[in-house]
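Box 3.1 A note on notation
Throughout this textbook, protein chains are presented in two layers. The first layer is the amino acid sequence; the second is a token string describing backbone geometry. Keep the layers aligned when reading.
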Amino acid sequence: MSIVQTPDDFKHTTVLLDEAVDALLTDPNGIYLDGTFGRGGHSRLLLSRLGPQGRLIAIDRDPEAVAEATSGANRIDDPRFTIVHSAFADMRAQLEALGVQQIQGLLLDLGVSSPQIDNPERGFSFRFNGPLDMRMDTTRGESAADFLARADERQIAEVIRNYGEERFAVSIAKALVARRESGSAVRSTDELSEVVARAVKTREPGQNPATRTFQALRIFVNAELEELEQGLSAAMQLLAPGGRMAIISFHSLEDRIVKTFIARESKEEYDRRAPFAAPKAMRLRALGRIKPGETEIRANPRSRSAIMRVAERMESEA
């Protein structure tokens, strides 16, 4: 007997909930941006702590997340709240359309949410059989299955190696192309898992052999690393002096981008072509790196890999 799951079955436990809001909130009457609304855990707590003049704008590219905020029993009915269906890389244009030029804080909770992982129809997880989709925005773009149906062996191997850090990327790509050429391209999560399991020679203890391949395809299909770089750049144009960014990442590729960005913006830059010129002032001040505690990890094992980095916009670049 099959079990039909409804959206209410896909629960999400917000990671670093209090820590993120505590780090972000410097002015209760400021304007804040939650660039990854998800199921609204961070947004709801932040709204509860905002003053009457405060404002929260949320962005999410998943239509289901936007629906969570605007309809049904869990909708947010608060005049201080606005949500936009968009990728956070486009935050400057979206805020400009709302008449907002500066914000006091930006939160990004990166990666895939539990409701996305746990819904077989989304195709994010090898734990459930479903269509191999993986798009966060199901209204546009190319699915993982469509990519694997058209890409050549070199392209597939590069994606799996670069975004999944998978040492058997070439073997997996060869197996996927061979299956496609036999007239049976992979279209489901089970089919992809089976191909990868046969191609991966050794397995990391406790890890499904398809873990890295699923991660790689999801990151590629959604251009997650490119969006993160664009979003961080946009944040520098939006954050008011003294405003903060809090970025939660779940794997090394994301965290490396965030760490490098904050480090680069947290030091003075000298122009080697003009050694006597004043250095370009630092634009950020790194405030710290926070990980979930043991209590949170026990309650929500998916939080184990989370890292939050917090930085503050400097008062002046002069």
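The first helix runs from residue 17 to 24. Residues 1-10 have pLDDT under 50 and may be disordered.
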